């Protein structure tokens, strides 16, 4: 049997190919073999495969996969070796043969779809994704990849007016990426180790990185005698070592990010921790390997008064034995450090996290940036280009294929909708590390076709008319309607009506909250407090013509509860009981609604109810039934914890089986019509 996840450490390497910054990639370095036994072709191929020497493994698997009697597992490993080394067409052929040999290998339809997207075969990619979904069900990640197939075909015909060209003075036949400008010097990461440029104390391994056969990456600085500091058209580029205190690891290092004052540099290194691994080949015969598993670690160095980088220091939240931390990005004021990690508590394979610096200059505990950015896929390479604008790469949001570049407005855990940068910034391959060195110019890195190396640095220039638009602030004040006094600790929920994304804050001592808005978006604002009636307002940023702040006021009135008699069969909708996308936990604003239901049940102590949850028709029926059942059960558990007897409440999830309108599968409907179907209802079962 062949399964897509039979090599979990290896499968996570596909996104990054030859780059240092592949989080989750165990870099295995063969150190010791017990015994001197003669290995078979199978044993030798498997040894190369588990030590990530795919070029060597591929040659032997090709031999093993000749003829008609071929192991499905060997076809899978051959296809994976092709995929990692960039031979996508050959990988597709090997995967197809694998699925023909073993019907349980059809989980490879997901990988097949990913490869077809990278080859811009979007119609075939949709077929592969749809085949996978028909057997294994859908998911937000799969839905985004399907959506990307449709979007990419339209995007290919609507390029922005952008000048994009290779940074010819920096690129080599190796991997060159992660370019930033610091103190009029380009700092970048490269596998091309220029011996004459290295300080004689810089550590460089005498053997290559076994996965690629190329040198380990180091950080270099590029200066030019021309006006454009090493950009295309310069006469000569002088490359030098950034310094031995930064290039101080025997393994990979890069990329670098600098504080605004230029006195601190943050960068990633690979850090080796030893463990043992056993592989069985053939049965009852073990080959013992001692290996090194390399995790990523985030370090920083501070300049001395003389202007030299001092010994690098490890960031306090590193834990190289448990997870990787790397790819730093620093806010303009230096108070927030963003980074990428696979630490527990994330949403996907790699997430963007952040830590805040306290008044004493110490970094706090890491916090996840949340589901507004992070998906169940990979989010990587964050770069802060403005005070409230982050660029990053993702294969989880709808995109062209591989990693796509995205821009998002916000900070910490409050973010607007990420926006795909579209062609020519994005291609069907991996596009990453978007850095602007002035308003309209910058760098990005990509392994797109027609480059000179495995990764190349590109320079872009925007026309003035497509410069990033200015964002808006929303200042909301919540008042008590009775006497116009401000309400502290009220919950203010802001909803983007185009995509139903919601953000929440509590009011401060002045009864105020501050959100960040996008232009040309319709919003809904709801304020609530436990003992008061909620108030709401809708507004649009289409009509905001000047200024950078939108002001809104909400007035909460006293509760007026009319007397009502409830009889068996009565039912009503719990208005305002919403859940986060694909979640069933009770949010603070939902708790307010359930508290009202609790008060009703306390008032009528003999009443028994059915608490039912309903979804719209989007998604599979099985998925919707499961999610609605979880949501109803979660609401029931909340009421029981609040003191209502369990025997008085029955929870039931109906999924999409009881739509209140005609918005069934395949019927085009507005978001408001879909929202009407997403509801929680109460039905009175008895009231004696």
Q: Cα distance, first to last residue?
A: 59 Å
Counting DSSP H or I runs of 4 or more residues, the number of helices is 11
Form type: globular
Proportion of residues in helical segments:
10-25%
Rounded radius of gyration (Å): 28 Å
CATH superfamily of one domain: Tetratricopeptide repeat domain
Class derived from helix and strand content:
alpha+beta
In words, what does this structure look like?
The chain is an alpha+beta fold. The termini are far apart. Among the domains are: 8-155, Tetratricopeptide repeat domain (Serine Threonine Protein Phosphatase 5, Tetratricopeptide repeat); 472-556, Sandwich (Immunoglobulin-like); 571-687, 60s Ribosomal Protein L30, Chain: A. It contains eleven helices and 33 strands. The strands form eight sheets. Strands 1, 7, 8, 9 and 10 form a five-stranded antiparallel β-sheet that branches. Strands 15, 16, 17, 18 and 19 form a five-stranded antiparallel β-sheet that branches. Helix content is 20%, strand content 31%. The longest helix has 21 residues, at 621-641. This is OmpA-like domain-containing protein.
What's this entry about, in short?
With 688 residues, the chain is an alpha+beta fold. 20% of the residues lie in helices and 31% in strands. Among the domains are: 8-155, Alpha Horseshoe (Serine Threonine Protein Phosphatase 5, Tetratricopeptide repeat), CATH 1.25.40; 472-556, Immunoglobulin-like (Sandwich); 571-687, OmpA-like domain (60s Ribosomal Protein L30, Chain: A).
């Amino acid at each position: 049997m062949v399964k897509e996840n039979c090599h979990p450490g290896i499968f996570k390497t596909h996104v990054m190919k030859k780059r240092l910054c592949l989080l989750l990639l165990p870099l295995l370095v063969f150190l010791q073999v017990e015994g001197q036994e003669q290995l078979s072709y199978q044993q030798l191929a498997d040894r190369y495969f588990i030590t990530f020497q795919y070029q060597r493994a591929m040659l032997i698997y090709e031999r093993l996969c000749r003829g008609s009697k071929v192991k499905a597992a060997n076809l899978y490993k051959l296809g994976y070796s092709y995929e990692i080394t960039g031979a996508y067409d050959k990988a597709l052929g090997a995967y197809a043969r694998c699925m023909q040999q073993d019907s349980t290998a059809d989980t490879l339809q997901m990988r097949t779809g990913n490869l077809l997207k990278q080859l811009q075969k979007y119609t075939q990619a949709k077929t592969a994704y749809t085949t996978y979904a028909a057997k294994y069900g859908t998911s937000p990640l799969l839905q985004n990849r399907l959506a990307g197939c449709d979007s990419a075909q339209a995007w290919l015909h609507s390029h922005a007016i952008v000048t994009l060209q290779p940074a010819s003075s920096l690129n080599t036949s190796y991997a060159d990426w992660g370019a930033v400008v610091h103190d009029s010097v380009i700092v970048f990461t490269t596998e091309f180790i220029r011996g004459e440029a290295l300080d004689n104390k810089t550590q460089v391994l005498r053997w290559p990185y076994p996965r690629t056969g190329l040198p380990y990456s180091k950080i270099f600085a590029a200066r030019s005698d021309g006006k454009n500091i090493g950009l295309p058209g310069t006469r000569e580029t002088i490359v030098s070592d950034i310094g031995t205190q930064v290039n101080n690891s025997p393994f990979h290092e890069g990329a670098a990010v600098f504080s605004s004052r230029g006195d601190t540099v943050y960068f990633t290194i690979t850090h080796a921790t030893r463990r043992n691994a056993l592989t069985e080949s053939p049965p009852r015969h073990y080959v013992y390997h001692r290996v090194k598993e390399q995790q990523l670690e985030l370090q920083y160095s501070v300049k001395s008064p003389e202007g030299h980088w001092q010994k690098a220091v490890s960031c306090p939240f590193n834990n190289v034995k448990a997870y990787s931390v790397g790819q730093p990005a620093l806010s303009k004021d230096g108070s927030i450090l963003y980074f990428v990690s696979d630490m527990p508590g994330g949403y996907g394979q790699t997430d963007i996290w952040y830590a805040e610096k306290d008044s004493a200059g110490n970094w706090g505990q890491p916090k996840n940036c949340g589901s507004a950015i992070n998906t169940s896929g990979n989010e990587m390479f964050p770069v802060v280009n403005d005070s409230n604008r982050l660029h990053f790469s993702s294969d989880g949001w709808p995109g062209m294929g591989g990693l796509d570049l995205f821009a998002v407005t916000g900070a910490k855990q409050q973010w607007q909708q990420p926006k795909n940068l579209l062609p020519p910034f994005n291609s069907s391959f991996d596009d990453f590390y978007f850095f602007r060195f002035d308003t309209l110019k910058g760098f990005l890195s990509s392994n797109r076709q027609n480059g000179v190396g495995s990764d190349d640095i590109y320079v872009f220039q925007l026309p003035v008319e497509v410069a990033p638009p200015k964002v808006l602030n929303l200042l909301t004040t919540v008042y008590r309607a009775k006497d116009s006094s401000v309400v502290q600790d009220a919950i203010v929920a802001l909803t983007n009506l185009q995509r139903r994304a919601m953000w929440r804050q509590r009011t401060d001592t002045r009864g105020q909250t501050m959100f960040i808005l996008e232009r040309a978006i319709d919003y809904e604002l709801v304020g609530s407090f436990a003992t008061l009636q909620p108030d709401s307002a809708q507004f649009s940023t289409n009509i905001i013509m000047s200024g950078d702040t939108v002001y809104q006021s909400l007035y909460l009135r006293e509760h007026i509860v009319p007397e009502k008699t409830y009889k068996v069969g009565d039912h009503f909708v719990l208005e305002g009981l919403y859940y986060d996308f694909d979640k069933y936990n009770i949010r603070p604003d939902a708790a307010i609604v359930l508290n009202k239901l609790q008060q009703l049940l306390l008032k009528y102590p003999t009443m028994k109810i059915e608490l039912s949850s309903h979804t719209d028709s989007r998604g599979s029926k099985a998925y919707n039934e499961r999610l609605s059942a979880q949501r109803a059960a979660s609401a029931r558990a909340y009421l029981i914890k609040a003191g209502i007897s369990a025997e008085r409440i029955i929870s039931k999830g109906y999924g999409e089986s009881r739509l209140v309108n005609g918005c069934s599968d395949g019927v085009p409907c507005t978001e408001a019509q879909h929202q009407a179907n997403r509801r929680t209802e109460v039905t009175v079962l008895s009231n004696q």
